[in-house]
Amino acid sequence: MPSELPAAAAGTMTLGGDLVVRRMGFGAMRITGQGIWGDPPDREEAHAVLRRAVELGVNLIDTADSYGPEVSEKIIAEALHPYPPGLVIATKGGLTRSGANQWHRNGRPAHLRKACEGSLKRLRLERIDIYQLHAVDPAVPMEESLGELIRLKSEGKIRHVALSNVSVEQLQRARKLVPIVSVQNRYNLGDRASDDVLKVCEQDGLGFLPWRPVGAGDLTQVGGALDRVAKAHGVTPSQVALAWLLLHSPVMLPIPGTSSVEHLEENVAAAALTLDDGEMLSLERGR
After folding, report:
1. Which helix (H) or strand (E) holds 279?
2. 131 in active site
3. Which of 135, 167, 207, 242 is the most exposed place for a label (fewest CB within 10 A)?
4. Residues 36-75: pLDDT tens digits?
5. Where are the domains of the chain?
6. Whole-prediction pTM
7. CB within 8 A of 281, min separation 6: which ones?
8. CATH of segment(s) 6-285
9. Angstrom distance (rounded) from CA 19 to CA 253
10. Which of 67, 83, 131, 187 is catalytic?
């Protein structure tokens, strides 16, 4: 991997023993319409964002069949297929949609099979590198949901299984059934409720993909430290929040999303931002 690419400054992590990804990824949720529903207002801009992400050295793109629904995956294929060597596309199944900003869990095996096979078709792939159970369905035993993913893996349709929105207990139950290469939970400087899950990932070398990595509402809890550190470095608070994540844990794989090329470039530039121990402590304490 060329080291001069901006995303390379974040370093790399190997998932599942065979997937080397740069630690600054891209989340493709916001290349859809408002409320993560329907088509984006400017499809060509969405294509441009994805292509620019790859140009900047991003080689981990995270999406889901429910983004749109189905829109994000289609746009990724439109923009990037045939995919460049080394590009890892992680997608998810297990949530359904009834409208803008409305999400419903469905972990039934038949649904997950249909979701995975639909993702393969939309992404124009024969095998999905990382397939994540988007959320555990309380109406379906997790073992049944994962059992279907294990079958899909045995059929060669999934390379690695991963989880999203899980507790430590759920993660450990899942790992008794199938190797898990990563977890995607909500996590940022102002919301560290998944610290216990992150700790397990660190101990066992699993990737941790923090969704909502620069969630503005959560970052208001950080106080003036975020603005102060940003001004000291001549960068934005969001860039500091991303840099903090990368420095906070070696298994952290931020996937900030955007529908703007300019914002994308700003996010990826955060990979090169270094914070000293005093700044890290100040941010963590919020003062």
Report:
1. helix 277-285
2. no
3. 167
4. 999 999 999 999 999 999 999 999 999 999 999 999 999 9
5. 6-285
6. 0.96
7. none
8. 3.20.20.100
9. 13
10. 67
